[in-house]
Design a protein that fits this description.
The protein is built from 14 helices and 8 strands. It has an 8-stranded parallel beta barrel, surrounded by 8 helices. The termini are far apart.
């Protein structure tokens, strides 16, 4: 019997953590789960890269790492060759992930330049073959992440979602921006509503969900089954608690600065466990900047953290700042 996914149960309609390259590693995911994320998706892994290098690739192994306490997490694969996507899905089936998510939304030039990510939205037939290969190769459920389209003249999310459904995908997430928008401008939630009308599988809305009120409004305006949160969760895992409160019509209080800094310290410890000191400190620079966004003295603290390469010094600086909060 196929595994039930979080959105297929009677659990409250919490939000999911959207995949973000260089962000949604095991540390970020665990912190978001602790604040109420209903599911999460990993950073994207090259299917072809895995097939050719597998466990010899340290970055791939770091991406596959998980911490105890994580909830239902999907492993995101990207690629345009059905045979490689299918093989990677099969080989990675036993890594402890709850489902396989296929990336048809990444707008990065390096990815689309190889005909992968959102470039596949211009090749619906091949995209369908990629979905079919994954579905037939693994017992894990398969989902897909798409964009509104390539550009304003080729918005085809509904067509692509129907293809994904027809090839066996269990859900589709729609980032309601076109590829040429990248992350600028406004997400067109009307596209999400169109996809909802086009398919019977669950549709997740993504794009411009920054608060609990945004999540509630997206659900009401589009009819989507769930929402996914991306950039709003950077340095802010509490956005999931805020969304849960809004959907339950409960009051919510943002975390105090001290709590934010204590969480940053814990995030640092997990980054060190994942990557070792050198890379762990480098990775934490962006996270610290997100945790302190909008607080007094943020620019100076960010400048000081970015000058450090020693984990102990970063920890001491954050504790010093927390003590003065």
């Amino acid at each position: 019997m196929a595994q039930a996914l979080p959105w297929e149960t009677n659990a409250p309609p919490g939000a999911g953590l959207a995949p973000m390259a260089g962000v949604t590693d095991a540390a970020t995911r665990l912190l978001c789960f602790e604040q109420g994320a209903a599911w999460a998706v990993s950073e994207m892994l090259s299917a072809k890269g895995w097939v050719f290098s597998g466990r010899k690739n340290r970055n791939a192994l770091e991406l596959l790492a998980r911490f105890p306490g994580e909830g239902a997490t999907g492993l995101q694969l990207f690629g345009r060759e059905p045979e490689y996507v299918g093989r990677a899905a099969a080989e990675l089936e036993g890594e402890g992930f709850a489902f396989i998510d296929l990336n048809f939304g990444c707008p990065a030039p390096k990815i689309v330049g190889n005909g992968e990510g959102s470039a596949l939205m211009r090749e619906p037939k091949l995209l369908g073959e990629v979905v079919r290969a994954a579905v037939r190769s693994t017992k894990l459920p398969v989902t897909a992440k798409i964009r509104a389209g390539w550009d304003a003249q080729s918005v085809n999310a509904a067509e692509i979602a129907r293809i994904c459904e027809g090839e066996g995908a269990r859900a589709v997430a729609v980032h309601a921006r076109t590829r040429d928008q990248f992350y600028a401008g406004h997400a067109d939630w009307r596209v999400i509503a169109e996809v909802v009308r086009a398919v019977r599988i669950p549709v997740f809305g993504n794009g411009d969900v920054r608060t609990g009120a945004d999540a509630k409004r997206m659900l009401e305006e589009t009819g989507c089954a769930r929402v996914m949160v991306g950039r709003a969760a950077q340095g802010n895992p509490w956005v999931f608690a805020e969304i849960a409160a809004a959907l339950a019509n409960r009051p919510w209080t943002p975390p105090a600065l001290e709590q934010r800094l204590q969480t940053a310290l814990r995030h640092l410890d997990m980054a060190l466990a994942l990557y070792g000191e050198t890379k762990g400190v480098l990775e934490m620079r962006k996270h610290v900047a997100w945790y302190i966004t909008g607080v007094p003295g943020a620019a100076r603290l960010r400048e000081r953290v970015n000058a450090l390469s020693d984990a102990g010094a970063v920890r001491a600086l954050l504790m010093e700042y927390a003590g003065g909060a």
